[in-house]
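Example 204.
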Amino acid sequence: MRFQPLHKHATTDQVLLPAIKKRWSPRSFSNQQPEMSLLRRVFEAARWAPSASNEQPWRFIIGLKGDETYQKIFSALDSYNQLWAGTAPVLMLNIANHSSKRHPGRQNRWAEYDLGQALAYLSIQAMSEGLFAHQMGGFDADLASRLFDIPDDHVVVSVAVLGYPDDPDLLHPNLVEAEKAVRKRQDISEMVFSGKFGEPFRNW
Ligand SMILES: Cc1cc2nc3c(=O)[nH]c(=O)nc-3n(C[C@H](O)[C@H](O)[C@H](O)COP(=O)(O)O)c2cc1C
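Predicted structure in complex with flavin mononucleotide:
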């Protein structure tokens, strides 16, 4: 019998964009490849993210399952992420260009911030079309830099997979519980302040 897909929608009393409500980070991925036109669209969404001085410091290296790029990115993952990420059809390396194009010789200190925004745009576009992203910080950035000859003024910040969820029970036994767990967030009062740091904003 085909498995029941997990729905791990945000539990909220606020009306959110459907893609934001539905998005979550699965670990069990099927081997179904996304259409190349969809892949192109999610990177187009990343392309239109805002960035400091419109520097667009994001750079991506994409591997498709079976190709050498995928294998190299996979080899840089830590052992925890290697337990699950290898079934996903797309692996990507997310890189920030720290050199400013507008101000040669100057550092762009918002490069990683802007890379994160590009990933957020990409994830939401993907989710609005049924494609899931799962970002990772657990990898060897030095190894990834060496494997791909990343220039010195660029930093490999994260890895992500893209794909479609599969049966959670196919995961390594250590990962099944987390896959099925309810998603949690801190309360809004712990993150939105007024007056001074730590004092909740109360004028909603
Ligand atoms: C920068 C970043 C690094 C992350 N690193 C990992 C990781 O190494 N391994 C992993 O399984 N998940 C990783 N995650 C996924 C988070 O654990 C996940 O987004 C968080 O628990 C919230 O869950 P949700 O995305 O399903 O809402 C990472 C997410 C981000 C944004």
